[in-house]
């Protein structure tokens, strides 16, 4: 009886956990569903009481309004280039720096690492004016290079890579490679890089989505409509007194689709990184 009671209790506890997780998932997904619903409805449905929760038939019509108002695909292409370049460079720099901080000894290592981490507590708005001045003096205003160059050094990425390399790459493996005559870069390329691939996926998704959704710096630097990213281009849709919410949310919906595709492509590596940390 005791075993049967424990089994029933365990089953009931598992059911409660699944119910809670299902409810949390629905709450997390509902804003995306509501955005899709509004993208298929006229603007008046945005303020309707009771709220509209069923999709309409104006998705293509609202998106056509977006295409007539802005260069949607041009802005999307600029954003893809920006996010791809920043993500690749951040992954390279962060993994190299994380490898150095985790496995090498050099003077001032701890002070330098702490200094990099402290930059994460500084609000980005505080550096907006001096950063704009530097980019202006460098002649990079209205260019994607001016937007991306300040994003290459990512303190969070360096921290994540340092922690992952410390826990996943054995010191004995590196010492054995050095005895075989491998250079530091050969060790990074042949040993460290394959091991930290799940962390690469995790950091890549974080950086890609962060750059995709960033607005303030892009809006500050870019003034030429031909160089607009998707966030800046969508912001121009609301520069009127008569705001068409169906059109705006249609643009937002289609601008979100690439992020969903990126996550679906790399979610296995993302989950592998999480479960690997949990097992450790």
TrEMBL record:
Residues in ABC transmembrane type-1 domain copies: 76-266
GO biological process: transmembrane transport
Ranges annotated as spanning the membrane: 12-36, 75-99, 111-133, 139-160, 191-212, 245-266
InterPro entries linked: MetI-like, MetI-like_sf
Subcellular location(s) of the protein: Cell membrane
Membrane topology of the entry: Multi-pass membrane protein
One Pfam family here: BPD_transp_1
SUPFAM superfamilies: MetI-like
Domain of life of the native organism: Bacteria
A GO term from the CC aspect: plasma membrane
Keywords for the protein's UniProt record, in alphabetical order: Cell membrane, Membrane, Transmembrane, Transmembrane helix, Transport
Family listed: Belongs to the binding-protein-dependent transport system permease family.
The protein's name in its UniProt record: Sugar ABC transporter permease
Organism: Domibacillus iocasae
Organismal lineage: Bacteria, Bacillati, Bacillota, Bacilli, Bacillales
């Amino acid at each position: 009886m005791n075993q049967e009671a424990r089994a029933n209790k365990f089953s009931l506890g598992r059911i409660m956990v699944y119910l809670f997780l299902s409810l949390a998932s629905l709450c997390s997904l509902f804003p995306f569903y509501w955005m899709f619903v509004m993208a298929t409805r006229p603007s008046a449905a945005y303020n309707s009481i009771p709220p509209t929760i069923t999709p309409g038939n104006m998705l293509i019509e609202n998106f056509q309004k977006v295409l007539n108002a802005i260069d949607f695909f041009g802005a999307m292409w600029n954003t893809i280039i920006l996010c791809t370049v920043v993500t690749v460079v951040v992954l390279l720099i962060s993994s190299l720096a994380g490898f150095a901080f985790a496995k090498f000894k050099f003077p001032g290592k701890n002070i330098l690492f702490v200094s990099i981490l402290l930059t994460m507590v500084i609000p980005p708005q505080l550096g907006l004016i001096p950063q704009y001045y530097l980019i202006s003096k460098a002649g990079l205003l209205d260019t994607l290079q001016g937007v991306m160059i300040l994003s290459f050094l990512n303190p969070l990425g360096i921290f994540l890579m340092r922690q992952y390399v410390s826990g996943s790459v054995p010191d004995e493996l590196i010492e054995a490679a050095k005895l075989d005559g491998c250079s530091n870069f050969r060790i990074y390329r042949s040993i460290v890089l394959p091991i930290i691939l799940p962390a690469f996926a995790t950091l890549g998704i974080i950086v890609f989505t962060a750059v995709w959704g960033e607005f303030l710096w892009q809006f500050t630097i870019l003034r030429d409509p031909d160089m607009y990213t998707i966030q800046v281009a969508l912001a121009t849709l609301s520069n009127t007194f008569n705001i068409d919410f169906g059109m705006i949310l249609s643009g937002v919906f289609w601008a979100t689709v690439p992020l969903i595709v990126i996550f679906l492509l790399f979610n296995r590596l993302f989950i592998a990184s999480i479960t690997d940390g949990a097992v450790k």
